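Sequence in, structure out.
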Amino acid sequence: MTEPLEQRRIYILGNPDKPEVEKAMADLAEFAGHGCTVVGADLSLDGCLAASAGVDRVIVLGGDGTLIGVARSLGSDQIPLIGVNIGKLGFLAEYSFDELRRNLDRAVGDDTLVMQRMMLDVVVERNEQEDTNVLAVNDCVIQMGPPFRMIDLDVFVDGVPLTRLRGDGLVVYTPSGSTAHNLSAGGPIIQSGVHAIGLTPLNPHSLTHRPLVIEHDCEIEIKAGTVNGESVAIVDGQVTCPLKTNDRVRVRRFGASFQLVRNADHPRWHNLVTKLYWGRAPTFK
């Protein structure tokens, strides 16, 4: 469905740690205000005010990390997010500032551009009690810490033992997160619309442990066997949860989906090919 721009309400959020964002936010609020209703503009990663205002879109100025932080803050009250890249790679934040100015009417008014991406609910249990509950847009990385010895993790899927993993850790990720830590660890790239959960061992002490993609409605449980004093579970590279021996990390699909507005000017594989250079032949001189 496409609605006239003047019927749409937007909220603008910007990363307060990026000096150039404040001016970009003021320029965007002035420009967008000529076509739609700008309900608010804040230097913040907290989307709760936007959710309570009942807006149609949230424009997020920053980078991929900014976009992920805003999505997590929305919890179950997800709103379509338009990511404007004022950062480095801009894989999820597909729009440049100029591209959004040219395409604001479609980005705000065309609902066919809203992509639904699954998220994960991550629960860390200690002494059989919930210690931490975090929403993950990309991934949960269980990783060894100082003194950097291998750790042992017992992995279960839907309560059934899958494996005991010895190595540096494990990445559990969404399709969106398949191009993050998982990609660097040699795991598969999963198309963003696929409903699946990936598991990629980090430097396993075994030739038989390989990345695994499982059904989206499975629950993964990781029990910390032998861990280091500062082993951690890291969610989206932004939230760190210390892990002790016998702690359990439970990961399953979250009930709401991350809603991302794609750039209509970019073909489906644009970012994969132009930013990650997937499939490019080597260049010889």
